[in-house]
Amino acid sequence: MPNKLSRRLGYLPLMLCLCSSGFAQQKHNRVMLILIDGLRPDQITQAKMPNLFALQQTSVVFADHHAIYPTVTRVNASTIATGSYPDDHGILSNMLYMPETSKQPLTTGESRNLILRAASRNDHILAKPSLSEMMTADGKHFVGITSGSSGAATLLAPEARHGTATLINAGLADGKVVAYPADVDRTIRERFGVQPAHEGLTSVLWTQKVLREYILPELPHDLVIDWMTEPDSAQHKYGVGSPQAVAALKAVDAEVGKLLATLRERDELSSTDILITADHGFGDIAGTIDLRTIYREAGLQPDEVTALNDSPTSSFYVHPHAGADFQKKLTSLTTTMARRQDVQLLFTRSMTGKGCKAGASKGSVAGTFALEKVHLCTGDGPDLVVSMRPTGQKNAFGEGGSVPILQDTDAPNENAGVHGGLNPWMEHIPLICMGPHFQGTRTLQEPSGNIDLTATMAALLHVRMTGIQGRNLAVDLTRTGAVSHHQYEAEAFGIRRYLNTTTYMGEEYANDGER
């Protein structure tokens, strides 16, 4: 993997590649990123999503595209916003662990919690600057519109509340506004009313109407991020492949068709680079495991551990974080987890204590991989991360990806579908690209990931970003390189576990695990 310095300086060759590829001759190029929440590649079929299926036949398809792990919305939103991994941007889970503020974990789904986090970080929600900030500094216009949570929207453009971008979502400022800045909020309220909050497809339809009838014809926009939160909502509630989820897929596909038709009518389709992807894939819940039972087996009290539950992935903080008992407690919890047949992968720091070592692959506790290998090692980050093992069984609708989840409350789980784990159903997502810099019909088998989206968009827009990671995918059309596969091994108690990764052009992508 490239070191931090090479990544920080990686933009210079990126810009040189742009010029040598003829990018500098483009007078004005717009970019649109369409995020379809929870979409799996195998769902893009003629029957379910005819518009996307047709696009795949005439566009550039990255067939081995990866979500960021944990495969949850707000972690991936933060990576897309900044072009950096979780250990750099600071959002390691869909939940926040802020013991100085709250005894209980806080959801990143609510913007108020992110703003609370910023209060102790010089008013910065993320530890890295966002593309929206860099665009504003460069005199370009960012517009983000999402039907999802206020937290996910805020992470796309963290400083929009201070006037650096246009951001549209129903839950901003605790629901007091539907958009930043104020004049956009006022116009939307007058013409479209208030966005239905968290109402699945109804919310999606509202955002798409605003996009087609207001943003495209009236607002200046160099980059539009359009985040549709279906089929995620339907799949959570009813399961992958359910009639409701299939209906959501068809509806979202129809909205994509309408959007492309609008761009064509406005004579903007041929001058807009369009990237269509997802934040994560999906699976189904195959039972729940009570963490409190595991704590007892490890000889720990519930108040000695805090768990951030991303469903099939959980991140554990052992208390106290210092002292002679810390390593003993961590080892006890980790070994208890490692003995379980339903645990797929375990990650701990490569060093005892709180240190991190770049490039490490083995964790400090036997049977674990290094948190550094999946970019989750920070000084105030989790001590143990566990990803559960898929069952190999299909759900009631014939779909794969079922996996048990971890839970530490008595609250009944009312959902059917889930994501968050490190397995092909949740890690592998689609990426379809079209436009002036993605011409022709090609299917690329080389790996790519959401880590690469920001570098790509910044390059297409000629925006210089500092500290950027990932690579410019548009350049992949004019270059080739060797793809290498690696399988890391960790063994404990007679159980061998394997972490599979693929490396291409200096980036290493986590694929899945085996045991």
From TrEMBL:
One of its GO terms (molecular function) is hydrolase activity. The keyword Nucleus does not apply. Pfam families: Phosphodiest (PF01663). SUPFAM superfamilies: Alkaline phosphatase-like (SSF53649). It comes from the Bacteria. Keywords: Signal. Residues 1-24 form the signal peptide. This is Putative AP superfamily protein.
